[in-house]
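Async update (no meeting this week)

Hi team, since we skipped the sync, here's where things stand on the single-chain job. The sequence we agreed to prioritize is pasted below, unchanged from the tracker. I ran it this morning and attached the output directly underneath so nobody has to dig for it. Comments welcome in thread, and please keep replies under the output.
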Amino acid sequence: MVRKIWIVALAACGSTSKPPLPAWSKSLPDSSVMGSWRGYAASRGIIHLHSPYSWDACDDMPRDPLPLGTVNEACLDDLRTALCTENIDFADLTDHGDTMSDEDFPTLFNMRGSDTAIMDPTTGDQIASQMTCDDGHVVTITVGTENSIMPIMLHHHVPGAQADREAIYTAYTPDAVAAFRDAGGLAWIAHTEQHPIADLRMLQPDGIEVYNLHANIDPKIRGPYLGLDPTGAIDAALQFTAGGPNGPEPDLALLSFLEVNQPAVTAWNQALGDGRHLPATAGSDAHQNALPTIMPDGERGDSYRRVLRWFGNVVLVHDRNDPTEIESALAAGRLFAVFEMLGTPTGFDIHATTPAGAVAELGDTVQTGATLVVAIPTILGLDPSLPAPEIHATVLHVDATGATPVATNDVGGQIELPLVEPGAYRVEITMVPHHLGPYLGDLGPSSAEVEVPWIYASPIYVQ
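Output:
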């Protein structure tokens, strides 16, 4: 549940005009600009997303009271428009089980207009829908549910009447995980910061969140679970309500409170140290229900567009709109999470080569003696008039003894690392985003002078 945070806009301050800056883009570029990988293409996705079929979406008004079930079309339109504006290739909806379990499964795709249903040719189940944007961009939409466990990309409801389905969706047991897999989905863990490693060992999920936006915002999570100042995110976000010619770019509000979700990262390392093959994603957890204040750009603070602009997940597939391929890539761990607010990465690559010349991708397993190759990304289209960011790459080797940095790079190019020890090898790319400092206006560049996560890549495994 997301706690409502009300922010009062501050008065505009300062009268000095901003120096000319390259225009800030409110839209992400097409995912194809990130590159290609040995026949694979990028598919940009939002994993953990709420529609009007979650009871707490749309400022707790997701559906009209009468007639019961009529969705908040204005809020739904905000979501659908945001998916197009931000060039999202796939959206894994995860509405809460107590309000999605009583709907016919196809209803949950929120299809409108010319949307197309994607059917499983074997079972006849609808497994996805596809929305075509005005510019021809296609968004593939799937259905899941967020509760104690977050199954994603279900092919149909779990069995039973509404009460039976809700009981399964809200359960926290290995049997529920099995039921989600039987329903064609993957069992993910959201809000990993709230799940002890003993629970992850019990549940054996298919993947976890290594970052969750609302964990960084909600005072009731930041303090108890992340060990951060409970109101720190609210205090930081207040600064971005300032307008005027030297007000900060509202889309950069995340920069003021973006921090590593260390308990989630630690749990991931512990699970990998157990020998689990476990991919990780970043959860947007967007509801459009937390920051209703209108920012200087005319949008509410937590607009679907703004939140979807901040970060997402990139899976490597042959067809970026094929839901079966996307699900297979997620299951295999052929993916990375990226905070694109900092910049869209280009030239990024991780693979391993064997002495025989074979190539292993993210999520694959190789024998000792292979070589890990990491191409360090740069920011797509970075204007040379802006200060240069500092980009730092770290390879971590994770085994039962913990997570150990085994290679670093601060200068670009690539890392080549012989893989001599069994375990998981994962890559983190961090950044000091100096190039965003000029967009902070009267706030000054201090928030752009702190190292923050840019990319979390799922591992390659060595045995």
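Quick observations from my side:
Residues 1-16 have pLDDT under 50 and may be disordered.
The chain has twelve helices and 24 strands.
Reply here if anything looks off.
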